[in-house]
Amino acid sequence: MSAAIAFVRPRAPLNRYIRNVPLNYVHLAAWLRERGHEAVILDGVFDEITPAYIDRVIRERGIGVVGIGCITCELPQALAEAARLKRAHPGLRIVFGGAHPSGDPEECLQSGAVDYVVRGEGEIPLAQLLDALREGREPENVQGLWKMRDGAVLPGGAAEAPDVAGLPRPAYDLLDLERYYRLDSPWHFPKSRRAVQFITQRGCPYQCSYCHEIHTKRFRGMPAETVLDQMEWLVREHGAREFMIVDDIFNFDLERAKEICRGVCGFFMIGFPGETLEEVQATLAFAVAAPLDSIFISIVAPFKGTGLRADMVAGSFGEMSGEGLPALDRLFPVVHNPALPAGLLMRLRKRAYWRFYLRPRALTGLAARMTSFRNARKLARAVTRRVWEPRVASVN
Ligand code: B12
Fold first, then answer.
1. N or C, which end of the chain has less CB nearby within 10 Å?
2. What is the pTM of this model?
3. Which H helix or E strand runs over 203?
4. 29 & 107 share domain
């Protein structure tokens, strides 16, 4: 049978208040995709995701499995949708997961509409379930997978938790993030319209009596560089401007949390073709005034494989030609813009660095990071490089 999976978020009254990126589905879909399984996400927060639409996708995409995650207040709608799907698509397998099913797998299975329940983190058991179905066999002894056998619940224990350092980038690309940016959720108060939910760790060792155990009682934080890489990707590829971190306990590993905070966001670029001096000055004024501990100002460079380079080679920006391009290996500014000769850009950048690093906030930030001689030397070198960068040849 087909093991292509559709994740469905049924429309629940809750969705009037909480209209967020379905993090559970983007995490699961990324994991499955890496293992050769096709996944789609059908999110009931959008009006067009009606039962008829879901039915059409199931038929047209040859979906064999529907996955539904829910918290307790979404359970009635989740079960009703599962029952409807079972009636409409005989042979379709339904698997439940998430906070409520993890807390009470029996209840979901006994409803008669659910074939499997994953208790805990879904990545490993769900992939094993889909592997088995794709090979035309029933899954056996999958840790964390509960199912019915001969009218009785066959328990599966708790899922094996994946190594968070090895989690792929969540499949935000399966969603139309532009539409999520436009959703107005009364629960969220981001500063930017382009804010996105994001998670940097799983599990929490504390024993708060009201809390769940879905993600084990072990703190598992993604390495800071992985978090920063994912954030940068979301900013670059998906236009995110703000992250709503919904971790259980972001700051459990304080060093990791600080490393993430230090690594965020102060990257600026100047020197685009067509950019005016006033625009460059506005960018630099913003960089200098922003409440950041560290900034990095790049001068635009047309690297191979970029649209910018293709446009330049095609002559879209006037006389710039191939000759300047080899200079890229030496990190020289090469974008030709008569209004912004390279020398001027370098001077403006140097001045902005001076202004930035002489602010009391930046100085205290730097001092706080000099926790060892090695660190102090590294930081001093980095700042010196920025404010006293060597003169470089200009190609325009
Ligand atoms: C962020 C968050 C919120 C945010 C945003 C909501 C959202 N859905 O993103 C806000 C702050 C708005 C919120 C609100 C509420 N929340 Co809340 N929230 C969370 C939190 C911290 C993270 C959810 C998340 O995105 N996790 C990241 C993803 C990757 O993990 P996941 O969803 O668990 O998915 C994994 C597994 O569960 C499983 N899985 C999930 N779905 C599926 C589906 C299938 C098919 C499979 C196989 C597996 C699977 O695999 C996934 C990957 O490993 C969780 C706690 C937590 N750490 O999970 C509580 C949590 C979900 N919230 C909870 C609650 C109770 C609420 C509120 C009801 C609180 C309240 N009293 O008002 C409200 C709901 C409001 C309302 N009107 O009803 C409870 C749910 C418990 C329950 N049984 O219902 C949780 C578990 C916290 C707790 N106390 O234990 N919440």
1. N
2. 0.79
3. none
4. yes
